[in-house]
Amino acid sequence: MRRWLIAEALVPATALLVGALWCRPLLAYTVLALFGGWLYPLLTVRLPHAHPGDDAVTQARTLRGRIVPPLLLEQTYHLEHHLYPRVPSHKLPELARRLDPFLRSAGVVPRRVP
């Protein structure tokens, strides 16, 4: 049974390796997909919810930038999403700009990313 399990585990890895050696775009796609698969949950779930506060403006974090937020479908505006969950994600940057004076007065400093 152990040999069968090892063989089953090696088949996808072998297929990927053979495909990557045969086709360079497949290797590039695989690397980008794996990178994105780790990056997306990190930036949209883990980091925004790390060490949450007790009140509404400290329950999540917000990340601002020109490149990363659109790549992550504006999910980096997580505090804004928690404050106004019915606002569609494509409107979160506009909401963030409108909330900036309020957030500054509450002592919330948005983190900047590229």
Blueprint (SSEs and pairs):
Layout: H1 2-22, H2 24-49, E1 63-64, H3 68-71, H4 78-83, H5 92-105, E2 111-112
Parallel strand pairs: 1-2
Helix pairs in contact: 1-2
Can you characterise this structure?
With 114 residues, this protein is mainly alpha-helical. It has one domain (2-112). The chain contains five helices and two strands, in the order ααβαααβ. Strands 1-2 form a two-stranded parallel sheet. α1 (2-22) crosses α2.
Taken as a percent bin, the fraction of beta residues is under 5%
Largest sheet: 2 strands, parallel
Low-confidence stretches: none
Average pLDDT figure = 85
Strand order of the largest sheet: 1-2
Level of helix content? 55-70%
- Enumerate how many helices there are, as a single number: 5
Provide the structure class. mainly alpha
- Rounded to the nearest angstrom, the radius of gyration is 20 Å
Shape: elongated
Tally of discrete structural domains: 1
- Termini separation (Å)? 49 Å
Kindly state the number of beta strands.
2
List the helices and strands in order.
HHEHHHE
Descriptive keywords:
114 residues, mainly alpha, two-stranded parallel ribbon, 2 strands, 62% helix
State the gist of this model.
This protein is mainly alpha-helical.
